[in-house]
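Notes from the pairing session

We agreed to fold both candidates in a single pass and log them together. This is the raw record for the first candidate, unedited. Please don't reformat it; downstream parsing expects exactly this layout.

Candidate A
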Amino acid sequence: MLEPLNPLWSLGGGLLIGLSAAGYLLMNGRIAGISGLAAAALGLTKGSSRRLGLGFIAGLLGGSALAMAFVRRPEFEITTSVPLLIVGGLLVGFGTRWGSGCTSGHGVCGLARLSPRSLAATGIFMGVAALTVFITRHLMGGPG
């Protein structure tokens, strides 16, 4: 088992996310939500720059690769079936489109702008996440 990361790594990561989101807003006049940028990268949105979306996604993947190379490689174990993972991914994708954004757009950028819609969306995200953990761990007897 790995030792916990130094809290300074988390602080540094949070600062980089905040600076990136602020820079994106200042330079492009748009909110840096991952679901919107992924949709732009795939050419699914009108009026959004596909190149910008691809660049942002490349930066996320490149930053992750650097962290794995220089900090540590994460350890994880998949404990569920592939069909359940696919259904979960589709539900998350549907929810981000229905909710007009994801946790990065609403939770990071929207809350920083004191957006009432983002406050409601983030509260719903977190409430559903807590309810899901409670149901799967305590009512269905899942890992925990």
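Candidate B (folded immediately after A)
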Amino acid sequence: MPRITITVPEKNAQPYRFQLDRQTVTLGRGSDNDIAIESGSVSVHHAEMRRVEGGYELHDAGSTNGIKLDGVRCEVIPLYSGSTVKIGDVSFDFALSDEESEALAREKPSDPSPITREAELPKHEAASAPASSGGGGFGAALIFLILAAAAFFAGMAIRYQKETGGSLIEAIQAKAAATPAAPAK
């Protein structure tokens, strides 16, 4: 029987078990879900755990706060034995016994099974993560800094013009021309 443990921050973990042949398990704040989660960060109908050939997947049901794997919001997350996913700010832990993992692996012999032992899992397998999740942060930060510097200078130029009636750029150029160059050593 696959096991799910739901841990709401500052509350006790709640374990759940269900049959391997169960096709869909609904999760959300509403009492009509298979697993009702009492947390403000969880939508009324937040997600569905679906049985697929060779394992299980967690699907976002159009929730406000989404489902996340390693901090990355995803629409669908394949579940591996030992997976920990966030549903809103609630931890969702998924576990299978060795026998269950083997039974699911036999369902799909031509492709590698999404159900593996924890030791066989890659360090960070982010399903549905953007392919270019690498250097975009540096470029965005650089553009932000350039725009911030330009906005700061524009603000200073406007303030200088209001206070003196002159141009800040012309004042800087005049000061640079009047300052003697330092002797070379």
